[in-house]
Design a protein that fits this description.
This protein is mainly alpha-helical. The protein is about 70% helix and about 0% strand. It is built from 15 helices and no strands. Helix 7 packs antiparallel against helix 11. The radius of gyration is 25 Å and the shape is elongated. It starts with 5 loop residues before the first helix and ends with a helix.
Length: about 325
């Protein structure tokens, strides 16, 4: 008869102990009765433990996400700083890419097609549209591949998956900051000049609301991308549709006479965001309260819906 050594028994107990703390909730019932009693005598009630990968209650999930805020911040900042590290021009691309996009659209729509004739300062109009639209566009297109692009990390580590969406939005905000600075300088320097006024102080508030909206969109499309992987192939079409339906390049009122269609476009949250930016930066006016409420409703509504939908499907992300 083979005798079990004390060392082997000790290793077996340690293995069960590690499993107990890594299996949370259902794991406590999987332990042998003597070990469960021993752990309860040492550490108290084990009912709060749950299985790794299971979906925690919503309040606990949000708490875990908040506890990892420093990790999310550091990860997003690190990705933003190293994004163009392998390019010869390096960080200069943070400014060059949006400037090239804006210059291209200005030449095509402003000079060749002369679409901006009804706008007093079409340069500022298109700069604000292109630069600020890209923040939301990247949240949508990046969100679609959020789960598929993070499979190795999802299978290796236990953490609230919504932190991926928060990191994505924060990273894009870091990436976009140099371009936003260039945009503000450009609309001041390029004639006809837009000089800073007191209404420019509303710009950070709009940016915060847009970031909240982007977070909800990233989580919603992250869930959609996990359910419909082929959706990623259609995102370039969706991005173009949003661009032309959000008054990024031209005022839609000039081309749409149907009141219902116009009302639908004007209810588009990205259209509302750009309209608020242009009002405070170009017109020097404070947008009406109704427009602020519409944007706030869209931002917090999208954030809540996206967060809850993403949380409901938490368990499936690491299994697929």
């Amino acid at each position: 008869m083979t005798r079990t050594s004390p060392r082997s028994e000790s290793q077996g107990l340690r293995t069960q102990w590690r499993r107990a703390w890594s299996t949370r909730k259902s794991g406590a019932q999987l332990l042998s009765t003597p070990l469960r009693r021993d752990l309860q005598s040492r550490y108290g009630d084990l009912s709060h433990l749950r299985r790794v990968g299971s979906r925690p209650p919503l309040r606990e999930y949000f708490t875990e996400l908040w506890d990892r805020r420093h990790f999310i911040w550091a990860g997003a900042r690190g990705e933003a700083l190293t994004r163009y590290s392998n390019e010869r021009l390096g960080a200069l691309w943070y400014i060059l890419r949006p400037m090239l996009d804006a210059a291209f659209y200005w030449v095509i729509f402003g000079l060749v097609l002369d679409i901006g004739g009804s706008v007093d300062n079409y340069v500022a109009f298109i700069l604000i549209g292109v630069f600020m639209f890209q923040l939301s566009s990247r949240a949508i297109t990046g969100g679609t591949g959020l789960i598929r692009g993070s499979k190795p990390m999802l299978r290796a580590f236990a953490f609230p998956r919504a932190s991926l969406g928060a990191s994505l939005v924060l990273r894009d905000l870091f990436v976009g900051m140099p371009a936003i600075g260039v945009m503000l300088v450009a609309i001041i320097a390029i004639p006809p000049h837009e000089w800073p006024t007191v209404t420019w102080s509303f710009f950070p508030i709009i940016l915060v609301l847009q970031s909240i909206l982007n977070g909800g969109l990233a989580l919603s499309f992250g869930w959609l991308g996990s359910v419909l992987p082929d959706l990623a192939q259609a995102m370039s079409f969706v991005a173009r549709l949003l661009m032309y339906g959000s008054a990024v390049l031209f005022p839609v009122e000039r081309f749409i006479d149907h009141p219902t269609v116009l009302a639908i476009i004007q209810a588009n949250p990205i259209y509302v965001v750009l309209d608020l930016y242009r009002a405070v930066l170009m017109e020097g006016s404070v947008p009406p309260l109704a427009e602020w409420l519409v944007l706030a409703g869209w931002a917090f509504g999208a954030a809540v819906v996206g967060f809850v939908v993403f949380w409901i499907n938490e368990e499936r992300y690491s299994r697929e």
